[in-house]
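Q: what sequence does this backbone want?
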C-alpha cells in the first residue's frame, strides 16, 4: 500500500552551484546555518585535540598522506575546479600542482619552524632556562574566495593543519564542491583524524556564522569590503583575524628591460584566469624610451589570446557573472577620461567571456587605475623614469604584489626594495606564488598578515614563553625578602653596564 500522508519532515536547506559559462546547475549543497556551523566547530574542536597533541613528525606523516591522496585525485579535483570556476582544465591542474607544493612544504617544515627554542636569559635571569614554544591555536575558521578555490584557501588550511590546528573551511558559494572534496580527501587519507578538516557551505551568512562561532582565528581571503565586515564581527569577541584581500599590482619596465619577456609576462599576468587573480597584473609603468615598443609587443601578444569554453582556450569566462559589469565600467570610464584603447574596449565584454583589453594613457585617478578590475584588462602608462614608476606603483591603496623588468638583476632587486608590495618578482610575474617558503600577503586594502612560509606557519600558533628556574639566584629580585642593599647593588650594576654598552 502506498503511503499518501504528506511529507512534512523539515528538509535541510540547500543551494545550487552553477557552471559560469553556461549557467547550468552543477550540484546541490547544504546551506549551513549557525547551528550547523556551531556543530562543525564543536566537531573540529573535539577531533583537533588528538591532532594538536601529535608530535610534528606524526602530523607530517599524516599530511603527506593527505598530499598523496590529493595528487592521486588530481584529475577529479581539477575537474571540479574547472566546472565550478569555468577555467580551462590545464589551469585547474596547475592550481592543484601548486597546492601540492605548498602542502608538502608545510608538512615537511612545520617541525623545524615551530620547534621549541632556547633563547638567552640575560644577566638578571641567568638562573632561568628560557624557551619559546609555538602552540596551536585550536580551531581555525577559513573563509575562501572562488578564483583559486583550492590553492588560495589551502595557503591557510595546509599551514594551519601543519601547525597542529583543526580547520573549519567555508569555501565560496560559487565553489562549494571543491571545498567538500578537499575535506573528504583528508578524511579518506587520514581516517584516524577524520573531522580535523571539515567544510561548511553557504554564502555570506554562513561565513558570518563561522566568524561568530568562537573559532580561535579567522583566516579570510576575499575582497577588502567583505574583510571589513568579517573583521567587525571578529572584533566583538577579539577573535584574531588574517586578511588576504585584493590587489592592483603594478609592473615596472625599465629602459634596459628585455621587452619581449616583459610583454609576454604582462599579457599572461593580466589575462590569465580571465584576470581574476588577486596578484594579477593590472597596471604597467614603462619608461618613455621603451613605452611604444612595449605597447606594440603587449598588443601583438594579447591579440592572439582567446577566451572560450574549448579546453585549449587561453582563459575561461568570468566566474562571478557580475564582475563583467565592473570590467565594462572601468574600461568605459577610462576611455571617457581620455585613455586610448590599444586593443578591445567596452565591446569586449560580451556574455560570460570578456576579450582582452589593453588601455594606454589611463588617467591615474580613473577606476581602472585605483580599483581592482579583476578582469582580462591591463593599463599601460608611460613614466619619465623608474623613480616616477615607483611613486605611481606605491600610490595605490592596495599593496599586494608587483613586478620589475630590468636588464640588471641587482638594479631590479634595488627597485623591488622601494616598492610597498608584499611580494615582488624581478623579470617575471607572480614568481613568488610557486615558492612555498616565501610568505604571501599585503598591506593597505590588500589586507594584513601572512600565509605561506615560516610566517604562514607561525600565523596559526600562539607563542608561549616559558622560563624554568635552574638554580636559586644569588639576587632574587622577585621576592619581598630581597634586602634593600642588595636591590640597590643590582640597580647600580645595571646602570653601570647600560651606560657603558
Ligand atoms: P568576497 O569578499 O565576495 O567573498 C569572499 C568570501 O567571503 C566568500 O566565501 C564569501 O561567501 C564570504 N563572505 C561574503 N560576505 C561575508 C560576510 N558578511 N561574512 C563572512 N563571510 C562573507 O570575495 P570573492 O569575490 O569570493 O573573491 C574575490 C576577491 O578575493 C578579490 O578581491 C581577490 O583579489 C581576492 N583574493 C585575494 C587573494 C589573496 O591571497 N590576497 C587570493 C584570492 C582572491
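A:
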Amino acid at each position: 500500500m502506498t503511503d499518501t500522508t504528506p511529507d512534512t519532515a523539515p528538509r535541510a536547506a540547500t543551494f545550487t552551484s552553477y557552471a559560469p559559462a553556461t549557467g547550468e546547475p552543477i550540484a546541490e549543497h547544504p546551506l549551513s546555518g549557525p547551528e550547523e556551523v556551531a556543530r562543525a566547530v564543536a566537531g573540529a574542536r573535539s577531533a583537533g585535540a588528538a591532532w594538536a597533541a601529535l608530535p610534528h613528525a606524526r602530523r607530517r606523516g599524516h599530511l603527506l598522506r593527505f598530499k598523496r591522496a590529493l595528487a592521486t585525485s588530481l584529475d577529479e579535483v581539477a575537474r571540479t575546479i574547472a566546472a565550478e570556476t569555468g577555467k580551462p582544465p590545464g589551469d585547474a591542474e596547475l592550481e592543484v600542482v601548486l597546492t601540492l607544493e605548498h602542502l608538502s612544504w608545510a608538512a615537511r617544515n612545520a617541525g623545524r619552524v615551530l620547534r621549541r627554542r632556547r633563547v638567552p636569559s640575560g644577566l638578571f635571569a641567568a638562573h632561568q632556562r628560557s624557551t619559546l614554544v609555538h602552540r596551536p591555536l585550536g580551531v581555525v575558521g577559513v573563509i575562501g574566495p572562488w578564483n583559486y578555490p583550492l590553492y588560495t584557501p589551502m595557503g591557510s588550511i595546509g599551514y594551519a593543519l601543519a601547525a597542529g590546528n583543526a580547520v573549519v573551511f567555508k569555501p565560496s558559494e560559487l565553489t562549494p564542491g571543491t571545498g567538500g572534496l578537499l575535506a573528504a580527501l583528508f578524511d579518506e587519507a587520514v581516517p584516524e583524524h577524520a573531522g580535523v578538516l571539515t567544510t561548511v557551505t553557504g554564502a555570506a551568512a554562513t561565513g558570518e556564522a563561522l566568524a561568530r562561532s568562537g573559532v580561535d582565528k579567522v583566516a579570510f581571503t576575499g575582497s577588502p569590503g567583505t574583510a571589513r565586515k568579517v573583521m567587525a564581527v571578529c572584533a566583538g569577541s577579539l577573535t584574531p583575524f588574517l586578511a588576504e584581500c585584493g590587489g592592483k599590482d603594478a609592473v615596472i619596465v625599465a629602459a634596459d628591460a628585455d621587452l619581449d619577456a616583459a610583454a609576454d609576462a604582462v599579457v599572461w599576468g593580466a589575462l590569465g584566469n580571465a584576470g581574476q587573480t588577486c596578484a594579477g597584473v593590472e597596471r604597467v609603468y614603462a619608461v618613455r624610451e621603451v613605452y611604444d615598443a612595449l605597447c606594440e609587443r603587449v598588443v601583438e601578444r594579447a591579440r592572439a589570446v582567446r577566451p572560450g569554453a574549448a579546453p585549449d582556450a587561453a582563459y575561461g569566462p568570468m566566474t562571478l557573472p557580475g564582475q563583467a559589469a565592473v570590467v565594462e565600467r572601468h574600461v568605459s570610464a577610462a576611455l571617457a577620461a581620455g585613455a586610448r584603447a590599444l586593443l578591445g574596449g567596452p565591446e569586449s565584454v560580451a556574455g560570460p567571456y570578456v576579450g582582452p583589453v589593453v588601455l594606454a594613457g589611463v588617467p591615474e585617478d580613473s577606476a581602472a587605475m585605483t580599483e581592482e578590475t579583476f578582469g582580462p584588462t591591463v593599463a599601460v602608462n608611460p613614466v619619465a623614469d623608474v623613480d616616477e614608476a615607483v611613486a605611481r606603483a606605491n600610490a595605490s591603496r592596495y599593496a599586494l604584489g608587483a613586478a620589475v623588468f630590468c636588464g640588471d638583476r641587482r638594479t631590479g632587486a634595488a627597485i623591488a626594495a622601494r616598492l610597498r608590495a608584499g611580494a615582488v618578482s624581478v623579470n617575471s610575474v607572480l614568481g613568488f606564488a610557486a615558492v612555498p617558503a616565501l610568505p604571501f600577503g599585503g598591506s593597505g586594502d590588500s589586507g594584513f598578515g601572512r600565509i605561506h612560509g615560516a610566517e604562514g606557519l607561525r600565523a596559526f600558533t600562539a607563542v608561549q614563553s616559558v622560563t624554568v628556574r635552574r638554580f636559586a639566584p644569588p639576587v632574587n629580585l622577585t621576592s619581598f625578602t630581597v634586602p634593600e642593599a642588595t636591590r640597590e647593588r643590582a640597580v647600580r650594576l645595571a646602570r653601570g653596564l647600560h651606560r657603558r654598552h
